Amino acid sequence: MDLADVMYRASLVLLNSHSSTNLAVPYVPNMIDIGGFHVKSPTKLPEDLQEFLDNSKEGVIYFSLGSNLKVKVLWKWEEDVWSGQPPNVRLGKWLPQQDILAHPNLKLFITHSGLLSTIEIIYHGVPVLAIPIAGDQKLNAERVVNQGFGLKLRFADLTEELLLETINELLTNPKYAVNAKKRSEVFHDRMTKPLDTAMYWVEYVIRHGGAPHLRIAGIDLSWYQYFLLDVILIFSVTSVIVLYISLKLINRLLLGCCRRKKQKIKTN
């Protein structure tokens, strides 16, 4: 099936967004927000990782790009060991990100700011340092800054001094943690969980035979009607006619005035 057919025949559009993660925009009835549907309730971490986080009373930074810090650093890395690895840094090829974000000792998440990671950050209410690389990451990082629960750095601008300065700002200024918790409260304040919302609307569409009553009339308009070309054409033609008649009337009035003036001059 052609993509255009899918777009125009879709009975339901489930959007991985929410007013807590994206800007508020107008939707049509068959567009439903289910942002965060993939986020699961936290589960117990592996014993060694749980112990690492529990014993980090001074706080933990997850996926840091720096190492000269007093707080401990949990870094997702492709190697198990690292030459010159500081004692406060723990490496792991795979880490249960959502469960780590839920731990109360986590103080900061440094990330590329992908969409799913950004949603998980908001879900758990964690301050963030966004270092976007490509795609939608730059837009997500900008939203993090605008919503006040994190900062962003351009990858090309990274220096040891700038990185440490930014991390220290995020760790010592309480406004980022406060804003992260507020944003998380907005995320969680829903009548139903995102996945339950998705299930309801899928079943709703099935129950009502595709729910054609949710489709907007604009989908069935021809292209020239959709872009209002017929209205623009009528308006343009009408305007030209009115302008033409007006010019004709003005021209006649001016000619009449000129004739009367000439007659007066001849009479005198």
Spatial strand sequence of the major β-sheet: 5-4-3-6-7-8
Spatial extent as radius of gyration? 31 Å
Output the CATH homologous superfamily of the largest domain. Answer: Glycogen Phosphorylase B
Q: Helical region count?
A: 10
Tell me the CATH architecture of the largest domain: 3-Layer(aba) Sandwich
Structure report:
Belongs to the UDP-glycosyltransferase family. Keywords: Glycosyltransferase, Membrane, Transferase, Transmembrane, Transmembrane helix. This is UDP-glucuronosyltransferase. The protein starts with a helix and ends with a helix. It is built from 10 helices and 8 strands. The protein is an alpha/beta fold. Helix content is 46%, strand content 11%. It folds into 3 domains: 3-37 and 194-218, no CATH class; 47-188, Glycogen Phosphorylase B (Rossmann fold), CATH 3.40.50; 223-267. It has helices at 3-9, 47-54, 97-101, 115-124, 137-146, 160-172, 175-188, 194-207, 223-226, 229-267; strands spanning 13-15, 31-33, 60-62, 72-76, 89-92, 106-111, 128-130, 150-152. Strands 5-4-3-6-7-8 form a 6-stranded parallel sheet. A two-stranded parallel ribbon has the order 1-2.
